[in-house]
Design brief:
Elements lengths: L17 E8 L7 H14 L4 E5 L7 H5 L7 E2 L3 E2 L2 E3 L2 E5 H4 L10 H13 L6 E7 L6 H9 L4 E6 L3 H16 L4 E6 L4 E2 L5 E2 L6 H8 L4 E4 L4 H9 L14 H27 L1
Parallel strand pairs: 1-7, 1-8, 2-6, 2-7, 8-9, 9-12
Antiparallel strand pairs: 3-4, 5-6, 10-11
Helix pairs in contact: 1-9, 4-5
This protein binds adenosine-5'-triphosphate.
């Protein structure tokens, strides 16, 4: 690859020691993307993987609350950022740097800089998976991400409702445009089981699986709508901590295992391509 002079165009560079970067996105806000990202990270950790989590949802950085730690990260050496370790996962968030209720007002270049710093200036060490919680919608953060680091793939979270799926399709189209493979779709808040045992369908369960099929994409699983999942998020104790045998957490583990398998499959395919060319 020759050496690069100053100003030489630099494409996305893999992060040394980090095997897979997986983005979690949604078209619509509020569908539970962060809940899925946090529980996916914790579940992968419990499954024995080394996991990092970047909260790139700069407009609503909820990861610190959901991970139960809101203190500022330490700076080590020359401007290296030490990620926060919680529940077996290393994470970083703008919420740690600009805590409180003040919104971060940011212009494009600053946003790009933050995404780069979170990838390159954080002491991630060896990771099997670096999960990135994207802001809802389609936009700048994804561009910054793909310009900085090669992604293994993206997970798209939706509810089964028509409007959420309409926006999820836009997210799929965006990942296609920036050449990021979609690992699969997750349906969140799928069904709800009442204390009586009656199951109610709030957002149109099944819609996400049908959309995945239409696009020839993998359906990674359906997650129940349950107040304990919300409480876990609010208390900083993600439901996945309950382990794969827990009734409420098991579906998150199903998703986590599928994501891990598919990510490894995608990575091995792209290695083959590199060897051939
Ligand atoms: N399966 C679920 N059951 C119950 N509550 C849930 C579930 N998933 C998410 N929630 C709750 O719904 C709210 C929104 O979830 P979350 O913040 O994860 O959404 P989001 O898509 O990341 O939102 P945004 O990106 O727009 O900030 C949170 O209070 C969360 O605890």
């Amino acid at each position: 690859m020759g050496h690069m002079g100053a100003g030489a165009p630099q494409g996305p560079q893999p992060l040394p020691g980090v095997a897979h970067v997986v983005a979690v996105g949604s078209g619509k806000g509020g569908v539970g993307k962060t809940t899925v990202a946090v529980n996916l990270a914790v579940a992968l950790g419990k499954l024995g993987y080394k996991v990092g989590l970047i909260d790139a949802d700069i407009y609503g950085p909820n990861v610190p609350t959901m991970m139960g730690v809101t203190r500022q990260p330490n700076i080590v050496g020359e401007n290296r950022i030490e990620p926060i370790l919680s529940h077996g996962v290393k994470f970083i968030s703008v919420g740690l740097i600009s805590p409180g209720d003040k919104p971060m007002v940011m212009r494009g270049p600053m946003l790009h800089q933050i995404i780069r710093q979170f990838l390159q200036q954080v002491e991630w060490g060896e990771l099997d998976f670096l999960i990135v919680d994207l802001p809802p919608g389609t936009g700048d953060v994804v561009i910054s991400l793909v310009q900085t680091v090669p992604l293994t793939g993206a997970v798209v979270v939706s509810t089964g409702s028509s409007v959420a799926l309409q926006d999820a399709r836009k997210a799929l189209e965006m990942f296609h445009q920036v050449k990021v493979e979609v690992i699969g779709l997750v349906e969140n808040m799928s069904q709800m089981t009442l204390p009586s045992g009656e199951v109610i369908d709030v957002f149109g369960a099944g819609g996400t699986e049908r959309t995945a099929a239409q696009f020839g994409l993998e359906f990674l699983g359906a997650l129940e709508l349950n107040p304990q999942i919300r409480e876990g998020g609010d208390k900083g104790l993600p439901i996945s901590l309950a382990g794969p045998d827990s009734a409420l957490a098991k579906d998150f583990y199903t998703v986590a295992k599928k994501v891990a398998d598919k990510a490894k499959e995608i990575a091995s395919k792209s290695e083959d391509v590199l060897e051939i060319s």
